Amino acid sequence: MQESMQAGNGYGNLTITRFFALHVFVLPALLIGLTVLHIALFRKHHQTPPWWLDEKELQRRAQPFWPDQMFKDMLAMAFVFAVLVIINFKTHGAPLDAPADPSTAFDARPEWYFRSLFQGLKYFHGFFEVIVALGAPVIAGGVLLSLPFVDRGPSKSPRKRLPYLAVLAMGFGVAAALTAISYSEDRNSEEFQSAKAKAHARSQKARMLAKTYGVPPAGGAAVFTQEPGYLGKKLFKRDCAGCHAGPVNDRKGPEIIAGFNNRQYISDLLRNPAANRFFGPTKLDEMEPVTIKGEDFAALVELVYAQTGADDANSALVLKGQELFDDGDCSDCHSIDWETEEDIGPNLGMRGNPAMLREFILDPDHLRWFGEKNEMPSGKGEYNDAELDELVDYLVGLRTAKK
Ligand code: HEC
Ligand code: HEC
Questions:
Q1: pLDDT tens string 32-61
Q2: SS3 category, 120
Q3: Among the residues of 46-156, which ranges form H helices?
Q4: Which residues contact 174 (CB under 8 A, 6 or more apart)?
Q5: What is the pLDDT of residue 314?
Q6: Where do the domains of the chain lie?
Q7: What is the C-alpha separation between 109 and 216, in angstroms, rounded?
Q8: Ligand 2 atom, smallest distance to 383 CA
Q9: Which of 129, 136, 178, 270 could share a disulfide with 290, CB 3.0–4.6 Å?
Q10: DSSP labels for 199-229?
Q11: Among residues 314, 299, 312, which one has the least CA distance to residue 266?
Q12: What is the rounded CA–CA span in Å between residue 311 and residue 289?
């Protein structure tokens, strides 16, 4: 049965199609059938009068179905319809979450009326879970169906049928308690709340992207691929993040996250090149912390910063930095011209510039940079031009990205 419902061994598109058909064709047909049955039974047995009225009073109050009762029915229907329309306008119908993505986890929750069953199942595992999942609704339905056959007393007074009502009340009580527990567990679970917030943010983003760029032919989760920088981010995550953005102990290279190569990053690097954030995890350990202070230090930072091509570099400060660089210790180990190779330290010319990053990814062990000590795998042959551009754009974007 499971296989024919999900149309295969697992959930998939066919499952959704099948359930759509079930809800659009089969269930409405069933509902119409039940309505017809209800009207037939109603005509046969007539209305159930309130239990506190005796025969005489009933006779006195009897009214024809048409038009009195019909009018009341119409009023009630109009009222329910109005409430549904208002709810629809307020909530915009069924909630529109982010497109389903099989590669991300999603904490699904059933509607409130199934919450009790959902919560109840948490207390059973394996074989028992199946038994309870199938058994509980069968037992509940069975009890309801058997009520008219078991409870055959002529009186309609609730006092005369307490045991049956007690069974019903117990059922409702258990369901209400399980529902309350389920909601309160979710409310108090930080994990669930943060997953929910993330899912909400994702759905907002999906809608924003769909509004801005339209929905691509692939549909669904493909809206996310339209975000500028999506490919670069994805490639970085796949190929670089392990060495550059991973947890401290797994990381093998300098930290490349939001803020990479901004002024703060560069000044932190110069102050402590061997820090775990920078060359700590690598074989490179020859540069001493820079101890120069004040404006001179700011000038050196500005000089390195200007290499990235950032358009807000202060050119007066850069000139001053260049003088300090040439006159001081830096030039003993570094060049800053792109051409010179095999200094003690890497050539700093164009460091962090898009053109440099492109070359660097393809050729990190170039003698201009880290030469023999390089531990970063070359990206040669791994990317086409567009992918390389996206990757570089991503790295450059980090400079101004917020943490
Ligand atoms: C003793 C030689 C030496 C001196 C002096 C020196 N550096 Fe370095 N520098 C290196 C080496 C070698 C590296 C590579 C990292 C390592 O081995 O610690 C490096 C790394 C760097 C980096 C990072 C390069 C990259 O690709 O990430 C910058 C920026 C830098 N140095 C700037 C300077 C500045 C500015 C000065 C002058 C204040 C300076 N260095 C002085 C040897 C030196
Ligand atoms: C196996 C680990 C590893 C992988 C994978 C890796 N890198 Fe690196 N990367 C390093 C190391 C180590 C360094 C330090 C310099 C060196 O060893 O050549 C580095 C240096 C860099 C630098 C220079 C940082 C600086 O401060 O000058 C950039 C930029 C960079 N990597 C980008 C990337 C990109 C982009 C990718 C993915 C395409 C990537 N890396 C993949 C290990 C890695």
A1: 999 999 999 988 887 777 878 888 888 888
A2: helix
A3: 55-61, 70-91, 115-121, 127-150
A4: 116
A5: 95
A6: 95-224, 233-398
A7: 29
A8: 38
A9: 270
A10: HHHHHHHHHHHHHHH---TT-GGGGGGGSTT
A11: 299
A12: 27
Six-digit token pair at 58? 């009933």
Positive/negative CA dihedral, 252, 253, 254, 255 = negative
Share of the chain above pLDDT 90, in %: 61
Pocket test for ligand 2, best of 236, 238, 244 (most atoms within 8 A of CB): 244
Reported pTM: 0.69
Only one residue has tokens 């023999």, namely: 372
Task: Tell me if 333 CB under 6 Å of ligand 1.
Answer: yes
Q: Which of 371, 287, 280 is nearest to 329 (CA)?
A: 287
Per DSSP, 113 falls in state G
**Token pair of 370, please?**
């880290």
Q: Which amino acid is at 317?
A: L
Token digits of residue 308: 């990235």
Whether 306 is in the pocket of ligand 1, judged by its Cβ within 6 Å, is no
The least confident of 146-155, 162-171, 296-305 is: 146-155
For 81-94, letters b (16+ CB in 10 Å) and e give eeeeeeeeeeeeee
Cβ atoms of 348 and 307 within 8 Å: the answer is yes
The owner of tokens 């053109």 is: 355
**Which distant-in-sequence residues (6+ apart) come within 8 Å of 124 by Cβ?**
131, 132
How much distance in Å is there from the Cα of 6 to the middle of ligand 2? Answer: 46
